[in-house]
């Protein structure tokens, strides 16, 4: 009973604590000195920049997200030339990212379609890799990859590994959240950038989770070329990406994966190849997988798990993946 | 246990917004004329918004944030009161989950084309397709099932809305 009362009291206390910010200030200040006179303020670039600088000191990620959203929403009404000039002058990477995001927002809201080019130019040409990385991040989850030509191929050749990884993250997130894998040209751009990269980690990051269901024929050929990379990471990610290609490219993709499996020595790559073959064929891949079992006896348990998962007759790839994982975890 | 309860309550008060959620705003100023059911009781499963003005300038895509819009023009020309079921002009976005967000009935303009944008204009308010007057129909569906949860609690029939008004949240 005592414990219950104590709990009740503490719960009310916490509830009161949680609700304090919701109590209108005037009611708290009732009876105190007269409220200060409200002063009108215009929404200006310097004003918003001051607000962001103050917000950066708050150390609250939520408040910083709010300020970023505020700047993006205000961007369409801000004077474009002033915003662009402020961005070009700014050398602090954090502020540059906010201003770049505002320019990108103007472009995405179609208030100033060319604003994206200003950001892209700086992402390529700024001397400071931290500023280049920041401006690349500002283009994340937007239509930048459609509007900036070969920007991503060039970014993948940037001297800074940080910039290359930021660009790879953009391609992954844009394809996932902006296009949902449903826009072939966006997928093709990601594959072209992955192939242009000399950084195996960046290539593997792009291809490892790329939805390729709308991939074009030329890009499918590029992916098959990446199966011959010296890097096991790249071969592995290319094999996974080829598993999801559209119906018209499935035949050649399957042949490429089977052919590579015979000569491959890396176990991680072999596992990815088997997964790709399973994804391309579902239940019809079982005879092929049976044939591959003899090549490397060490892979037999992995292939058996795939065969059992495919023989369940599940029609959703995500469900097959889950079933295969379950079978491997089962005692 | 007590401390866990305190922590849970405190966490509830500080829950951040889900990063991938997309707010939906009204495509133009107007009034919500239908939501889950029509006045007749027949299922509708979407949000209808009308300003009452046919060919009203600038029907925007309502989703906040950059997404790819697939715009299909089935009926060119200015139509205000319907052109028959299945003939509506449509802007749609397919999410990774397979759910599709659709906006229907607008009149084709020079802005009616596929692109990636954040609240861009895809036509003018109109009545192409199955419509008895000019309006926008906002619908989220998958495999023939309409989602009604995205707007429930955010808007209701009769509400006056403008382009800044939240009519729902997609997540």
UniProtKB/TrEMBL annotation, chain A:
Gene3D superfamilies, A to Z: Leucine-rich Repeat Variant
Family annotation (InterPro entries): ARM-like (IPR011989), ARM-type_fold (IPR016024)
The protein's name in its UniProt record: HEAT repeat domain-containing protein
Originating organism: Corallococcus sicarius
UniProtKB/TrEMBL annotation, chain B:
Keywords from the named record: Signal
Leader peptide range in chain numbering: 1-21
Record's protein name: Peptidase M23
Native organism: Corallococcus sicarius
């Amino acid at each position: 009973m005592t414990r219950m009362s104590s709990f009740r009291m503490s719960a009310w206390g916490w509830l009161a604590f949680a609700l304090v910010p919701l109590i209108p200030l005037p009611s708290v200040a009732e009876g105190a000195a007269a409220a200060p006179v409200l002063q009108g303020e215009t929404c200006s670039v310097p004003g918003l920049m001051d607000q962001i600088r103050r917000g950066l000191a708050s150390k609250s990620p939520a408040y910083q997200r709010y300020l970023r959203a505020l700047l993006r929403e205000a961007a369409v009404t801000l004077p474009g030339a002033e915003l662009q000039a402020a961005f070009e002058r700014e050398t602090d990477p954090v502020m540059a990212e906010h201003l770049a995001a505002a320019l990108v927002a103007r472009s995405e809201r179609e208030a100033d379609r060319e604003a994206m080019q200003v950001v892209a130019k700086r992402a390529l040409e700024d001397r400071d890799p931290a500023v280049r990385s920041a401006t690349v991040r500002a283009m994340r989850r937007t239509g930048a990859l459609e509007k900036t030509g070969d920007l991503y191929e060039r970014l993948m050749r940037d001297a800074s590994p940080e910039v290359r990884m930021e660009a790879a993250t953009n391609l992954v997130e844009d394809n996932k959240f902006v296009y949902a894998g449903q826009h072939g040209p966006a997928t093709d751009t990601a594959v072209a950038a992955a192939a242009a990269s000399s950084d195996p980690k960046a290539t593997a990051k792009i291809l490892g989770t790329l939805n390729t269901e709308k991939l074009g024929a030329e890009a499918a050929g590029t992916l098959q070329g990446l199966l011959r990379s010296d890097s096991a990471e790249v071969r592995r990610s290319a094999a996974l990406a080829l598993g999801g290609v559209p119906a018209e490219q499935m035949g050649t993709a399957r042949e490429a994966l089977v052919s590579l499996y015979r000569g491959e020595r890396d176990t991680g790559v072999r596992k990815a190849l088997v997964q790709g073959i399973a994804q391309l064929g579902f239940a019809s891949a079982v005879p092929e997988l049976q044939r591959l079992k003899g090549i490397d006896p060490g892979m037999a348990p992995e292939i058996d798990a795939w065969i059992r998962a495919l023989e369940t007759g599940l029609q959703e790839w995500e469900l097959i993946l889950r079933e295969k994982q379950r079978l491997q975890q089962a005692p | 246990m007590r401390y866990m309860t305190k922590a849970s309550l405190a966490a509830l008060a500080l829950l951040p917004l889900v990063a991938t959620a997309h707010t939906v705003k009204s495509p133009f100023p107007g009034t919500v004329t239908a939501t889950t059911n029509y006045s007749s009781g027949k299922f509708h499963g979407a949000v209808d918004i009308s300003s009452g003005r046919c060919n009203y300038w600038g029907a925007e895509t309502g989703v906040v944030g950059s997404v790819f819009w697939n715009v299909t023009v089935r009926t060119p020309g200015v139509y205000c009161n319907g052109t028959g079921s299945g003939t509506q002009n449509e802007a749609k976005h397919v999410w990774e989950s397979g759910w599709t967000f659709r906006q229907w009935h607008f009149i084709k303009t020079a802005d009616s084309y596929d692109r990636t944008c954040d609240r861009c204009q895809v036509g003018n308010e109109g009545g192409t397709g199955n419509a008895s007057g000019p309006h926008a129909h906002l619908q989220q569906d998958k495999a023939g099932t309409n989602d009604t949860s995205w707007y429930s609690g955010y808007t209701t029939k009769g509400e006056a809305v403008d382009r800044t008004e939240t009519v729902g949240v997609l997540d």
